[in-house]
Amino acid sequence: MRSLRGTGVALVTPFTDSGEVDLHALDTLVNFVIDGGVDYLVVMGTTGESATLAKQEKDQAIKQVIVSNAQRLPIVIGIGGNNTAEVVATITNTDLSPFTAVLSVSPAYNKPTQEGIYQHFKTVAEASSIPVLLYNVPGRTASNMTPETIFRLANDLQNIVGVKEAKGDMVQAMRLIKDRPEGFMVISGDDMITLPMLLTGGDGVISVIGQGIPKRFTNMVNAALEGDIDKANELHYQIMPSIDLIFEEGNPAGIKSMLSHDGICNPNVRLPLVAASQDLSNRILDFLNSL
Question: What are the pLDDT digits (tens) for 22-61?
């Protein structure tokens, strides 16, 4: 899966002031990040507020990303949830031909055992006609997918090709990188520790901040992958304050505020999320101006 090495961005779903999916802004965003040098796109991840989108809205957004991308970059589609049967039904009823892989988040709220996580992803992988990336994000799901479970899945299911690791734990990340099966990708799902993950052998990132400052962030990732540690460190420390800012009041409120200052979309999110406060918005603007 060399096409998924480097910088992927977890696209937001822009909304109009009346609350509809803003397809024009989504087109602008896709072109903005492609012009910024990212390597692939992720549509309908958790950053895309997929949990509060109706099926018709998801279909609209997915179609727009495909059209706007115009086959320039690989696209990964997010299909996950805490109802295994529903995830399987969505996969089997979706035309997966435009996509390079499915990104599937570990079940949230249920808090399954490691055996439950294994059986969930085994069922999902067997239903998918394209490769599957696991997504481990305990801060949202309330359960951690251990390296042992990830390796068991990777060894048993040929089309499970990597993991987006977002526990925020460098020890777990290094264990994944050290002991992974040959060819299995370990992708950062945490912008703040992307650099150390890359420098210890990780394959890239699926990023939130990467769509707000795509050129600078992509340059940092590329420098790290090419072994230019001084350049990567310099860029990381320039970017670092923005990562704190965009997550201060939750995701994607912060990144949508940044994108509004970029002129990409307005800062609207859907309840139960609320837009970034004026104070945070001002500080994000101050950061952008400082660059």
Answer: 999 999 999 999 999 999 999 999 999 999 999 999 999 9
Widest pairwise Cα distance in the chain: 49
Q: Which CATH architecture has domain 2-228?
A: Alpha-Beta Barrel (3.20)
- 171 burial (CB, 10 Å; 0-12 / 13-18 / 19+) is exposed
Residues of the chain above pLDDT 70, percent? 100
Round to whole Å and give the CA distance between 13 and 279. Answer: 23
Tell me the C-alpha distance between 283 and 290, whole Å.
Answer: 10
Q: Which residue has the tokens 């115009």?
A: 70
Q: Write out the catalytic residue numbers.
A: 135, 164
Residues 45, 65: Cα–Cα separation, whole Å:
13
Report DSSP letters for 233-256, one per residue.
Answer: HHHHHHHHHHHHHHHTT-TTHHHH
Q: Helix (H, G, I), strand (E, B), or coil: what is residue 275?
A: coil
CB of 288 within 8 A of CB of 258?
yes
User: In this predicted model, what pLDDT tens digit does every residue of 253-266 receive, in sequence order?
Assistant: 999 999 999 999 99
How many residues are given for the chain?
A: 291
Rounded to whole angstroms, the Cα distance separating 260 from 12 reads: 12
Q: How far apart are CA 2 and CA 11, in angstroms?
A: 21
Alpha-carbon distance of 149 to 118, in angstroms, equals 6
**Separation of alpha carbons 169 and 172, rounded Å:** 5
- Coil, strand, or helix at residue 6? strand
At 267-287, the pLDDT tens digits run 999 999 999 999 999 999 999
> Residues 191-203: pLDDT tens digits?
999 999 999 999 9
Determine the residue type at 18.
Answer: S
For residues 241 and 228, what is the distance between their CA atoms, to the nearest angstrom?
A: 21
